[in-house]
Write a structure and sequence with these properties.
- By secondary structure, this protein is mostly beta strands.
- The chain has 2 domains: about 1-65, no CATH class; about 75-205, no CATH class.
- The protein is about 0% helix and about 35% strand.
- It has no helices and 14 strands.
- The termini are far apart.
Amino acid sequence: MPVSNEMSVIDMPGRDGGRLLAPGDCVVVRAERAGEAKVGLRRGSADGALDASFRLDVIVRCEEVPEAVVAAPTPSVSFLAHIAHVGDASFGQNVWAGGPDAPGAIEGLQIVGDPDSPLEMQVLVGGRPARWSDWSGAGVYAGTRGYGLPLLGVRLRLSPEAAGLEISAEALFLGALVASQRGRTVEFVSGSGVDPLVGVKIAIEKAAERSPGVGVGMEANASNREPRVRVFRASASR
């Protein structure tokens, strides 16, 4: 029974005093603020049993239920990559540019689609020294063409307006394993600092549900999958 004046008991029809006499009986305890209530068992007769259990459910008023995050529409974007000795190559979401089956040094990337797309890109252009480009959105090419300066890294991020979405991407550098990341911000950088990006695959998807405290993205995501493919330089003697 409630022990505070700020609590009241609402009995089910046919019951009073907050008593539960048979399986299926219930009461509602209404509280204006946090407090204490005592629940106990009492034998109905001298030889009555006490083998009963209670289930306590919290009832939340509708106005107290937090609004669910509604995922923004998945943007319709594709991509363009400039690949050494190949030229400009268009590729869609979840499709490799270069990659394990056709590796090629990627010298620049571009997001193709609505200028208001929430996806932005930054690339690390090889050189002495290598340098990161400015963040660029759809319609802006990042990198070079025909200067023999392959990309040594790429970053992707979603704007805050893209609620409920995340980036799913994979990258392949010469001499390295395929790496994979998911999150609102992802980053891939050549482990050696000189081996070029020879494959990239990008998609924007609805965010996967995760347990609290599990991080994603550049800072916390475990980015490397189990080894699947490794691309090596050709021997100079060939």
